[in-house]
């Protein structure tokens, strides 16, 4: 449990460059087994790397467990953020988000996603090199911010993206709010972004639009209903979380996919053949992607599944025990936090042969319609990520545009963290050029 009050907080937040299970977790798994206890930021925490317990936790959401995050995370994302709400309020917000990211909306959104990808790729091909993570994050942020709040980065007086960059840099840092620290910069980034969102909300409420043109219009309509349970605070925290979640995680996944495909020519060849076959099957090769074509991309989904399995973009998912719970000889005390650890599941050699290897063929014939005991890249249970399909659309459409029209190579400026297994992109630079 570490030191009094401090616990093992310093070890928990220590940065690492491995693509394997974080040393903090791996060392304790080897010493204590798949379920162990620790203390982080003043709270006792049960860490679960056990697939059965993880699945049990997700299935018992609202009964034996509820969503919970440390006070530092709550401070960062807002006390009324969707991850901290429960019961009817959570379901209400989830349905609101599905209005934006549900299948019917995504069908209409595919042409916009494809246009954004093609426009950016054409621009990047004229540059000496591109830092993939930053470039794709900007691309996705611009598209999402337009759908959410009609934000136009090129014509706006304020750079909303800069506020999120500051926010992200201190998101997982030691929680000391002193000027100069990453955590302080994170809070300041949130404060600046929230101020802009609040100003926009008040402007829209003062002059509502006749027709809905973005998600903010829908939110304002909900706020004006007499029987609404939505408040301005909840609405603003929701917009903030949606803006953050929609671009940061997806841009990481796209960057890693590009890196992995570049390093595995056989996978790149099969992916390219799948997308070129889609174009050949059209009556008009120049026409845009359709929902039917998107749903036919079998190997593409295998690449996406393998990429997010290896990326482990969400290293921890927190819950809180509502009462004493007995599981496999362990007692989880009421009120204790439980940290589900997806990387330990996704990189388990008993479930995935050579777990650090990029092998999209391992997903051949595997249907994934939500989370399972051995795959929880998008969460699980009733809190399974509502933006999952949006992420897959973004990745699939981008890869379609990339492999059918362009080729790319790493540049000398590409700084890659090398590990015994996977080489994760860190400042990953590429040179993009058109196919001959």
TrEMBL record:
<dbReference type="GO" id="GO:0004497">
    <property type="term" value="F:monooxygenase activity"/>
</dbReference>
<dbReference type="GO" id="GO:0020037">
    <property type="term" value="F:heme binding"/>
</dbReference>
<keyword id="KW-0560">Oxidoreductase</keyword>
<comment type="similarity">
    <text>Belongs to the cytochrome P450 family.</text>
</comment>
<keyword id="KW-0812">Transmembrane</keyword>
<dbReference type="GO" id="GO:0016020">
    <property type="term" value="C:membrane"/>
</dbReference>
<dbReference type="GO" id="GO:0010268">
    <property type="term" value="P:brassinosteroid homeostasis"/>
</dbReference>
<protein>
    <recommendedName>
        <fullName>Cytochrome P450</fullName>
    </recommendedName>
</protein>
<dbReference type="InterPro" id="IPR036396">
    <property type="entry name" value="Cyt_P450_sf"/>
</dbReference>
<keyword id="KW-1133">Transmembrane helix</keyword>
<dbReference type="GO" id="GO:0016125">
    <property type="term" value="P:sterol metabolic process"/>
</dbReference>
<dbReference type="GO" id="GO:0016132">
    <property type="term" value="P:brassinosteroid biosynthetic process"/>
</dbReference>
<dbReference type="InterPro" id="IPR001128">
    <property type="entry name" value="Cyt_P450"/>
</dbReference>
<keyword id="KW-0472">Membrane</keyword>
<keyword id="KW-0349">Heme</keyword>
<dbReference type="GO" id="GO:0016705">
    <property type="term" value="F:oxidoreductase activity, acting on paired donors, with incorporation or reduction of molecular oxygen"/>
</dbReference>
<keyword id="KW-0408">Iron</keyword>
<dbReference type="InterPro" id="IPR002403">
    <property type="entry name" value="Cyt_P450_E_grp-IV"/>
</dbReference>
<dbReference type="GO" id="GO:0005506">
    <property type="term" value="F:iron ion binding"/>
</dbReference>
<dbReference type="Pfam" id="PF00067">
    <property type="entry name" value="p450"/>
</dbReference>
<keyword id="KW-0479">Metal-binding</keyword>
<keyword id="KW-0503">Monooxygenase</keyword>
<dbReference type="InterPro" id="IPR017972">
    <property type="entry name" value="Cyt_P450_CS"/>
</dbReference>
<feature type="binding site" description="axial binding residue">
    <location>
        <position position="385"/>
    </location>
    <ligand>
        <name>heme</name>
    </ligand>
</feature>
């Amino acid at each position: 449990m570490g030191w009094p009050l401090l616990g093992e907080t310093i070890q928990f937040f220590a940065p690492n460059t491995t693509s394997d299970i974080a040393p903090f977790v791996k060392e304790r798994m080897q010493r204590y087994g798949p379920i162990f206890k620790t203390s982080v930021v003043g709270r006792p925490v049960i860490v679960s790397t056990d697939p059965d317990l993880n699945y049990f936790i997700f299935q018992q959401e609202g009964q034996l467990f509820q969503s919970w995050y440390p006070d530092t995370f709550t401070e960062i994302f807002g006390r009324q953020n969707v991850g901290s709400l429960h019961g009817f309020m959570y379901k209400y917000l989830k349905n609101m988000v599905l209005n934006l990211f549900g299948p019917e909306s995504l069908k209409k959104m595919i042409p916009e996603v494809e246009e954004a990808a093609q426009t950016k790729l054409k621009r990047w091909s004229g540059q000496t090199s591109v830092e993939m993570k930053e470039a794709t994050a900007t691309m996705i942020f611009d598209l999402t911010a337009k759908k959410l709040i009609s934000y136009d980065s090129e014509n706006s007086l304020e750079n909303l993206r800069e506020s999120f960059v500051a926010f992200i840099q201190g998101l997982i840092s030691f929680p000391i709010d002193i000027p100069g620290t990453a955590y302080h910069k994170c809070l300041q980034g949130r404060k600046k972004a929230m101020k802009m969102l609040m100003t926009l909300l008040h402007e829209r409420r003062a002059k509502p639009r006749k027709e809905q043109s973005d998600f903010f219009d829908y939110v304002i309509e909900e706020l004006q209903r007499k029987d609404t349970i939505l408040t301005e605070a909840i609405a603003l925290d929701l917009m903030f979380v949606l803006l953050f979640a929609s671009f940061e995680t997806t841009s990481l996944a796209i960057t890693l996919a590009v890196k992995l495909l570049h390093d595995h020519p056989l996978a790149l060849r099969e992916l390219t053949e799948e997308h070129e076959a889609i174009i050949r099957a059209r009556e008009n090769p120049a026409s845009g992607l359709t929902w039917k074509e998107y749903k036919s991309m079998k190997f593409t989904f295998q690449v996406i599944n393998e990429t997010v399995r290896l990326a482990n973009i969400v290293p921890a998912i927190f819950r809180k025990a509502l009462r004493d719970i007995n599981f496999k000889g362990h007692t989880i005390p009421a009120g204790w936090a439980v940290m589900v650890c997806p990387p330990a599941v996704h990189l388990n050699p008993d479930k995935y042969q050579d777990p650090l290897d990029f092998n999209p063929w391992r997903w051949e014939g595997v249907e994934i319609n939500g989370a399972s005991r051995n795959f929880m890249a998008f969460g699980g249970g009733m809190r399974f990520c509502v933006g999952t399909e949006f992420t897959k659309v973004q990745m699939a459409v981008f890869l379609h545009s990339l492999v059918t029209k362009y080729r790319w190579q790493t540049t000398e400026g590409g700084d890659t963290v090398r590990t015994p297994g996977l080489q994760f992109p860190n400042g990953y630079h590429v040179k993009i050029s058109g196919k001959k």
